[in-house]
Amino acid sequence: MIASLQSRGFRNLTGAPTALGPGINLLHGPNAAGKTNLLEAVYFGLAGRSFRGGSDRDMISFDQPSARVELALEGAEGSQLLAALDRAGERRHRLDGRPLTGGAGERPLVSVFHPDRLQLVKGPAAHRRAHLDRLVAALWPSRSDLRTRFGRSLAQRNALVARVRAGLAPASALAAWDEQLAAEAEPLIASRAEAVDRLARPYERFAHELGLEDAAIAYRQRAEGGEAEIAAELGLRRERDLGRAYTSYGPQLDEVEIKLAGRPLRRFGSQGQQRVALLALLFAERAALIESRRPAPVMLLDDVMSELDPRRRELLVAALAPSGQALLTATEQEHVPVTGEINRIAVRDGRTTALAAAARAAV
Known about the structure:
By secondary structure, this protein is α/β, with parallel strands linked by helices. It has helices at residues 35-47, 119-122, 125-139, 146-165, 174-209, 227-236, 238-244, 265-268, 271-291, 310-320, 357-362; strands at residues 2-8, 18-19, 23-28, 66-73, 80-86, 91-95, 98-99, 110-113, 215-220, 255-260, 263-264, 298-301, 325-330, 343-348, 351-354. β12 (298-301), α10 and β13 (325-330) form a beta-alpha-beta unit. The radius of gyration is 22 Å and the shape is globular.
């Protein structure tokens, strides 16, 4: 859990420390007050990058040489996370003074609902594959290197394809890399399929409760069969790959299909339907992690209540209440139903003010 946040040179935030509590933290205030910037600062501290589009350097205040965020943590994750970025592009991301390596379990997981994150639903398949691979690593930390290992083998096979095309290596040299790539592809495909299988039912349930009827998520793989079959198919496609100068078969081409009434939501869904689909996906992932006895992710939900009716707002708060930590933004406090104690934080001109504990309990 994140106990507090302090920033320096980060967008319009003043740098004063902000205390965060367990459960739901409501950041309320007028438009352009800095609510989304505060969510972004938390994400930057956890992930070392922004969730917004554009350049990460945009996080740096206009009159500052760098942006820096410190998160104080409670629990087994460690005591302090530091993320920093300067205008030259140099980054630092440290946990208790040591560089983060990206391994599973090094820091709290995080899920984000924000308009720029709609690319996960309506953007290219590569976004969904990368997101799914992060979920695989969160569900099964021992499998966290599957994507990296496959990516390394794919890059090496593609490099050899280029060498063969240039006449610097024989085509027969690809046989060994066909086997290597197939060996790395099989467990990646199996893990992705297992992860989506765990998502399917909670995704359908949350989508239905949020107003999307007949919603579904599925994993569509290009490579069929086990290691031997994949290697054999790669061998059959060698001439094609040499003509195209890349590997044309394997999980690097797979798709995570998000559908509504049997049609791809990315093509046929409205903006509102895509927003609900993203929200249902994030909550389905949270449910799958909790069911697998993994830590619940920190939920960062930007203006999530504005398009929901009162009943669905209550449903959302009830889904968040049992476990984990969430930060929600809203222009009006009344947009977030009260079910138990909520940590209310007013945001004005980049400065935060928390209500006293007694006042929170009385609201």
